[in-house]
Amino acid sequence: MKITDHTDSGHREAKVLTGLVVSGTVLGHVAGRWNGKLFASDVSNLIAGWAVDHYRKHGKAPKKVIGDYLEAWEERNGSPARADLVRQQLSGMSEAFSRNGKFNAEHCLDMAREHFAAVGLRRLSETLSAELDAGRTERADAALASYCKVELASDAGVDLLLDAGEMASTFDASSKPLLSY
């Protein structure tokens, strides 16, 4: 019997989600591929959706403004229990980010690639199992055929129409010149 420890997966999910909230680079790479369900947790997908919406409107990561999205969502949805879950996740992310100090966007993108692939494959596996158990081989085959791996910029090359983060980093003023006279 195989025992699976999802602690690492949850830890990785929190780190990637933190990257979306604090880093325009990470968010820029993910926003073009955002489908609303890249994370395993509904709460993580909700927060990530706010970050992606913010990025699409303002061209940068929401950082502390993410709390404003929570307040607006709470007013519209009126679910105190779910709002508490979101608040706890944001608080935990904030504490972990404060403890860790420096943030490495490239490392976060590597974790995002791995995590999104794992989540997608886990969902596909569950769908295939359910369809096969129910004797619906055609539907299982269709699910397998429709599976598409989420590829972030360095996986798929650069698409400047989708990878706004890559475009922004190309013109980053802090980069060093290639030649100096």
Structure description:
With 181 residues, this protein is an all-alpha fold. It is built from nine helices and no strands. Helix 1 packs across helix 2 (24-31). Mean pLDDT is 83; it is low at 1-7.
Considering the chains and any ligands shown, give keywords for the structure.
181 residues; mainly alpha; 9 helices; 69% helix; globular; disordered N terminus
Q: Beta fraction of the residues?
A: under 5%
Cα distance, first to last residue? 65 Å
What is the CA-atom radius of gyration, in angstroms?
Answer: 18 Å
Overall mean pLDDT stands at 83
* Series of secondary-structure elements, N-terminal to C-terminal: HHHHHHHHH
User: What is the 3D shape?
Assistant: globular
Would you report the number of β strands? 0
The residue fraction in helices comes out at 55-70%
Q: Counting H and I runs of at least 4 residues, what is the number of helices? A: 9
How does the helix and strand content classify structurally? mainly alpha
Poorly predicted parts: 1-7
Described by strand count, sense and barrel closure, the largest sheet is: none
